[in-house]
Amino acid sequence: MATKLIADSGATKCSWYLMEKKKNTKVATTGLNPYFLKPESILDVLSQYLLPALNNKKVDEIYFYGAGLSTIENKKIMRKILSKTFPDATIEINSDLIAAARATCGHSKGVVSILGTGSGCAYFNGKKIIQEQNGIGYVLGDEGSGAYLGRKVLQYYLYKTFDEDLMNAFEKKYNTSRAEILNNTYQKPFPSQYLAGFSIFLSENRGHYMVENIIEDGLNDFIVTHLYKFREAWTMPLHFIGGIAFAFKDVLKELCNTYELELGNIQKQPIEALASYHQ
Question: Which residues of 234-269 are buried (b: 16+ CB within 10 A; e: fewer)?
Answer without folding.
Answer: eebbbbbbbbbbbbbbebbeebbeeeebebbbbbbb
